[in-house]
Amino acid sequence: MIRTVDVPALVAEARAGTSRAVGRLISLVDDQHPALPEAMAALAPHTGGAHVVGLTGAPGVGKSTTTNALVRALREQDQRVAVLAVDPSSPFSGGALLGDRIRMNESASDPGVYIRSLASRGHLGGLSVATPQAIRVLDAAGFDTILVETVGVGQSEVEIAGAADTTLVLLAPGMGDGIQAAKAGILEIGDVFVVNKADREGADSTVRDLRHMIQLGEGLTPGGWRRPVVKAAALDGTGVDEVVDAIARHLDWLATSGVLRQRRTARARDEITALVIARLRARMGDLGSGGTLQTLAAQVVDGASDPYAAAEELLTTLGV
Amino acid sequence: MIRTVDVPALVAEARAGTSRAVGRLISLVDDQHPALPEAMAALAPHTGGAHVVGLTGAPGVGKSTTTNALVRALREQDQRVAVLAVDPSSPFSGGALLGDRIRMNESASDPGVYIRSLASRGHLGGLSVATPQAIRVLDAAGFDTILVETVGVGQSEVEIAGAADTTLVLLAPGMGDGIQAAKAGILEIGDVFVVNKADREGADSTVRDLRHMIQLGEGLTPGGWRRPVVKAAALDGTGVDEVVDAIARHLDWLATSGVLRQRRTARARDEITALVIARLRARMGDLGSGGTLQTLAAQVVDGASDPYAAAEELLTTLGV
């Protein structure tokens, strides 16, 4: 049974700072609930104020510790902070991960902090559709900074990093020297690099490697922003202020250079495109059960047609 | 400059058994050459005769060794055999991997064997589009068995396994006990399981674990085929005949049960759908540069619209 949702009331409560309402709106995203388009429309006029900061890095570099340290530092500046922990490799949402967070994070009882995990639940488009929607909810609810922390590795991580205004790439000595970072494709996506666990052996050479690799790649990035490498030890707070400062400077640069608007427009394009594709896929699914796609596929199996000819025919049937 | 391609001549030569022509047709796939739709149409009437066997498993389980042993055994039965080595993690194609194969495989000079590697080259849809197309070329060229070996891990591996009639999952003692296999999602995709390196310690317990896990999952799979677990040591040929036998029995079962046609039809549906999506994406790209998508995205950024409303408008512009 589908719950009836009073969208205008929920949006008003979320905007007034009620965590429960924010949570229910993100649950609509999680469920890809039929009321979601209405909610997104109601939230739209209130979006655009938050600074979306992505955190990414291999397992073990200290992402959660860094997130917690950043939350603390941003709270000291009286910012309202939301944390979205995204796990592309897990089909479970809001559960164990969130529990870990509550244990770890003394901010859990602070009303100026909202923490939520989001996981792929196998719905159409998965996290690449759900993550920007959840960000929209938090943005409209008035959080100043939204930290999007991705768990896990791979292509999806890179995609989700694309949802942020500023992307923080975390490395640790010995795990991620420059070459390894380049191979993992994370040099391209980072706006600020943090070498965490700076008390460990090899931290300085990791910083040096990384600066070198970044310099080599400099010609490839849009000019004007020199991507900093910050040494930190998030566990005891070393370097955290420098990280917060680098994030703030990046936002300034984004805003004054006009890159912020460019990035957000590109993201909106991706979001619209993903929704159009999902809609068309659903329509093709209907044609499949209706028989057209099934008939075409059988013709391909029989050698009476080929996939290209069948695709053309399906496009005609779709009326495109 | 785009080469002119004499498609009918190429197809005739490939059907006559000329390796060079087969290679040029697969290069059309690799390049997503404009002549590809014409080639696919010309090949279509000749497809459907090959048994497509996917090989998958974590790095180090001995995939190449097993592939080579299978090629040898199938050649002894006078089959013509093609090997397609698919590497989703590499942007390079036909190069180093192929070189390794030639060194390793004494069959390289045998005209009854064709070996080719295929890699993601960043084109639309990537290997999920290119792999079934390369299989079509080899199928129409008259190979009896096409071994599709995937290198690398993850979701793409599962997708590519979907291109096969029969999927062989390889494990090695100590690396892949049943629970690990279940976590990796490979229990669902296997039709035949091979525990390779059977001379190693722990082989028997891996086989036992695996049989147990398969039994637990039995209720979830379409009835009639009891998925065998074969112990092998491909390096010295132990168990290879049993593997070949299991593959042949699976093909018999597929054919008599009607599942072969079902699977191939489902695959053709996926292939058609992927091409339709690629076509629509290209068209949306045109709209993007034409301004419609860009204008809608800017409205979303300004909060004047939301992604759902924008998607609806774009669908209207697309004429859907």
TrEMBL record, chains A, B:
The keyword Cell division belongs to this UniProt entry's keyword annotation: no
Keywords linked to the UniProt accession: Chaperone, GTP-binding, Hydrolase, Nucleotide-binding
InterPro entries reported for this sequence: AAA+_ATPase, GTPase/Isobutyryl-CoA_mutase, GTPase_ArgK, P-loop_NTPase
GO molecular function: GTP binding; GTPase activity
CDD domains assigned to the protein according to its UniProt record, in alphabetical order: MMAA-like
The keyword Transmembrane helix is annotated on this UniProt entry: no
Positions of the AAA+ ATPase domain: 49-193
Family, as annotated: Belongs to the SIMIBI class G3E GTPase family. ArgK/MeaB subfamily.
The protein's name in its UniProt record: Methylmalonyl Co-A mutase-associated GTPase MeaB
Gene source species: Janibacter limosus
Phylogenetic classification of the source organism: Bacteria, Bacillati, Actinomycetota, Actinomycetes, Micrococcales
Gene responsible for this protein: meaB
